[in-house]
Amino acid sequence: MTTVRLPLFPLNSVLFPGLVLPLNIFEERYRAMMRDLLKTPEDEPRRFAVVAIRDGHEVAATSPGMPDQTAVPQRGPSAGFGDDPLKAFHSVGCIADAATIRERADGSFEVLATGTTRVRLVSVDASGAYLTAELEELAEEPGEEAGALAEGVLRAFRQYQKRLAGARERSLATGADLPDEPSVVSYLVAAAAMLDVPAKQRLLQAPDTASRLREELTLLRAETAIIRNLPSLPASELTRGPTSLN
């Protein structure tokens, strides 16, 4: 098993390969991470791993009552993630390549990264200024009938878009606007669909592209039916959650 060790950035969201990730970095542990990434030679990728949080807080408590009423101040790289950070995170995440890291006058950072490769968490190290992880890179296997499934998912996604936007209120994407490579389709739809974190996580860790597309087809049909039967409730309200501070 070939592994790589990278800085670890936990979020209350799922990052998929090919998708853009904007971040507002203000916690000291992640500021330290960005300062170290800036030391990477310009001709090398500035990589870190993003994992979705299973049990814990994206932002550590800095004062009583923040981020919730029962919180007490915490410090350190694993603050908010318990005694064993490995158990606090989902096991499959995604490597992010930071194309832009811009430091502001107050010491915070504006970061723009892109998901590249799925990885599986092997271990987490909390001995430094921020969490690092040993990661196993996961190959993307096509599976059986991925091409045909991708076509079906794109058709279902257009219907889903139509229900979300309202055919009379907004023009829909045409076939030229959407990809036709099955793995790209699977990740784009997974990221764009209004699903909760557990559902998106299941899609990220699907064993192959075809399996991901099959699950997306089921999810899209179910979500479209729900939206059709709840016309008085804006679709965006169905899965609205707290805004990420990062």
Describe this protein's structure.
A five-stranded mixed β-barrel has the order 1-3-4-5-6. Strand 4 and strand 5 (109-125) form a beta hairpin. The chain contains seven helices and six strands. It is globular, with a radius of gyration of 19 Å. With 246 residues, the protein is an alpha+beta fold. It holds the Pfam family LON_substr_bdg. Residues 6-224 form the Lon N-terminal domain.
Topology:
Elements: E1 3-11, E2 20-25, H1 28-37, E3 47-52, H2 85-88, E4 92-103, E5 109-125, E6 132-137, H3 146-165, H4 182-192, H5 197-204, H6 209-229, H7 235-238
Helix pairs in contact: 3-4, 3-6, 4-6
Domain Lon N-terminal: 6-224
Protein name: LON peptidase substrate-binding domain-containing protein
InterPro entries: Lon_prtase_N, Lon_prtase_N_sf, PUA-like_sf
Query: Termini separation (Å)?
Result: 32 Å
- Specify Rg, calculated over alpha carbons: 19 Å
Main β-sheet, in a few words? 5 strands, mixed, barrel
Taking all residues together, what is the mean pLDDT? Answer: 85
Order of helices and strands: EEHEHEEEHHHHH
Q: Please tally the helical runs, counting DSSP H or I stretches of 4 or more residues.
A: 7
Q: What share of residues are in beta strands?
A: 15-25%
Share of helix, binned:
25-40%
- Trace the largest sheet across and list its strands: 1-3-4-5-6
Low-confidence stretches: 167-176, 232-246
Count every beta strand, where a strand is a DSSP E run of 2 or more residues: 6
Structural class of the helix and strand makeup?
Answer: alpha+beta
Shape annotation? globular
